[in-house]
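Researcher: Quick test of sequence recovery. C-alpha cells follow.
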C-alpha cells in the first residue's frame, strides 16, 4: 500500500471512530484537572476587624482508566461448516475520565468443540448494527475514544472449518487493552498503572473489574461469544424395484434380460439445517441401459419405504451417468431422484 493510501485509510478510520463515539454525560472530573479550594479566616482584635486571611490548596485529578467489552445480544451465532467470515458482535465502552486508545485482539478459547480461524475485526462504520462488507472498516484498535463513551460496536469475523456437526460450539474472545491516546491515527503505548504513593502529577489508576473471567485492575477487559454449527447431516438410500419384463409384463415380472427396473435414490436430512443444491450422480452398470421414456424425476416424495413418482422430470442422462439436483431438503425431510433402466 502506498503512503497516500495508508494516509487515506487512516483518515477514514479516524472519521469512522468519531462517528461511532457518542459520549454520555460526563459525570467524572477529567483527569489532569486542577481542583483548588480556598478558605477565608476573619477575626477581630480589641473589637476591631482585622484583615481577612486566606489559604488555598490545589491538587491534580488523577486518571481513572476503566474500559469494558461486552458481547452484544447474548446469543450464539449459528454457522455452517466451511462458512467464511462468520460474524459476532461486541460493544466497547471507555468509562475512564480521560480519552484512551483501545487495542483489540480476538482469539479462540479452550474447552470447546472446534476452533475458528482467520480472525478479522471491523468497526461498525455506518453504525447500522450489522456488518456490511465493503463499508465497515477493518481495524486493530479504536482511536482516541473520549471519556465516558459507551457502546462502540465492533464485529469479529472468522472462518468456520469443514466437517463440523450440528450443536458443536466454538468459543471466541475479544479483548480490549487501554493505550495512550497520543497521536491520532496510530495506536499509543499500552497504559501502565502508577506504582507507589500519589504524586503531584496526573497518576493512573486501573478500575476495570474481574467480571466475565477477567483479571481485575489490569487495564484489559474482554468478553466471550460463540459460533454454533447448524448443518444438514444427509443420508442417502438407493433401492430398486422391478416394473415389468418382456414375457410377464407387469404381472409377477421377473428380473430377466429386457426387464424394466426402477431405481430410487432417497436423500434425508437428519440435521438442524436445510441442505441446498443436493446433486445426485449415478453411474449405471454396463449391464443395464437407461430408459429415456420415463426420464429422471427429481424432488419427489418418500413415504415409509415407497418412492412416489411425483417428482418433476428435471434430471439428465449422458454417457451412462444419471444426474439430478434437488433444490433443497429441509431438516427431517426426504426427497428423491427416480429413474428406470432395462436389463441387457
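Model:
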Amino acid at each position: 500500500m502506498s503512503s497516500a493510501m495508508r494516509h487515506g485509510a487512516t483518515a477514514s478510520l479516524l472519521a469512522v471512530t468519531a462517528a461511532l463515539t457518542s459520549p454520555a454525560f460526563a459525570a467524572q472530573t477529567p483527569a489532569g484537572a486542577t481542583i483548588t479550594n480556598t478558605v477565608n479566616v476573619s477575626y477581630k482584635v480589641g473589637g476591631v476587624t482585622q484583615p481577612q486571611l486566606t489559604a488555598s490548596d490545589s491538587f491534580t485529578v488523577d486518571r481513572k482508566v476503566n474500559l469494558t467489552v461486552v458481547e452484544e445480544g447474548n446469543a450464539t451465532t449459528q454457522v455452517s461448516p466451511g462458512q467464511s467470515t462468520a460474524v459476532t458482535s461486541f460493544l466497547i465502552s471507555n468509562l475512564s475520565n480521560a480519552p484512551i486508545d483501545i487495542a483489540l485482539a480476538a482469539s479462540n478459547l479452550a474447552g470447546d468443540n472446534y476452533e475458528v480461524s482467520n480472525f478479522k475485526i471491523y468497526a461498525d462504520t455506518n453504525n447500522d448494527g450489522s456488518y456490511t462488507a465493503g463499508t465497515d472498516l477493518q481495524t486493530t484498535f479504536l482511536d482516541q475514544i473520549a471519556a465516558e463513551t459507551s457502546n462502540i460496536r465492533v464485529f469479529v469475523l472468522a472462518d468456520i472449518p469443514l466437517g463440523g456437526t450440528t450443536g458443536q460450539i466454538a468459543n471466541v474472545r475479544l479483548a480490549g487493552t487501554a493505550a495512550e491516546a497520543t497521536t491520532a491515527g496510530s495506536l499509543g503505548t499500552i497504559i501502565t498503572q502508577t506504582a507507589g504513593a500519589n504524586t503531584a502529577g496526573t497518576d493512573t489508576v486501573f478500575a476495570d473489574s474481574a467480571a466475565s473471567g477477567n483479571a481485575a485492575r489490569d487495564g484489559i477487559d474482554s468478553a466471550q461469544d460463540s459460533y454454533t454449527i447448524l448443518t444438514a447431516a444427509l443420508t442417502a438410500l438407493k433401492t430398486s424395484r422391478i416394473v415389468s419384463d418382456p414375457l410377464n409384463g407387469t404381472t409377477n415380472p421377473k428380473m430377466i434380460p429386457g426387464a424394466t427396473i426402477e431405481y430410487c435414490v432417497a436423500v434425508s436430512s437428519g440435521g438442524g439445517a436445510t441442505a441446498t443444491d443436493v446433486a445426485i450422480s449415478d453411474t449405471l452398470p454396463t449391464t443395464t441401459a437407461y430408459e429415456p421414456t420415463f426420464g429422471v424425476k427429481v424432488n419427489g416424495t418418500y413415504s415409509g419405504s415407497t418412492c412416489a413418482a411425483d417428482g418433476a422430470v428435471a434430471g439428465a442422462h449422458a454417457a451412462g451417468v444419471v444426474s439430478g439436483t434437488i433444490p433443497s431438503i429441509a431438516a427431517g425431510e426426504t426427497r428423491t431422484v427416480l429413474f428406470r433402466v432395462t436389463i441387457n
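The radius of gyration is 35 Å.
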